[in-house]
Amino acid sequence: MLTLLCSAGPLCAASPESSDASKVDPAWILSKIARPGAITTQFVELRGSALLKTPLRVEGRYARDADATLVREVTAPYHEKITLKGETATVERDGKKPRTFSLSRAPELGNLQQGFGALLSGDASQLEQHYSLSAAGTRQAWQLKLDPRDAAAAKASVRDIQLYGKGAELRCIETTSDKGELQRTLLAGAAQAAAKVNDGDALTALCRGHNG
Question: Domains along the chain?
Answer without folding.
Answer: 6-11+22-207 (2.50.20.10)
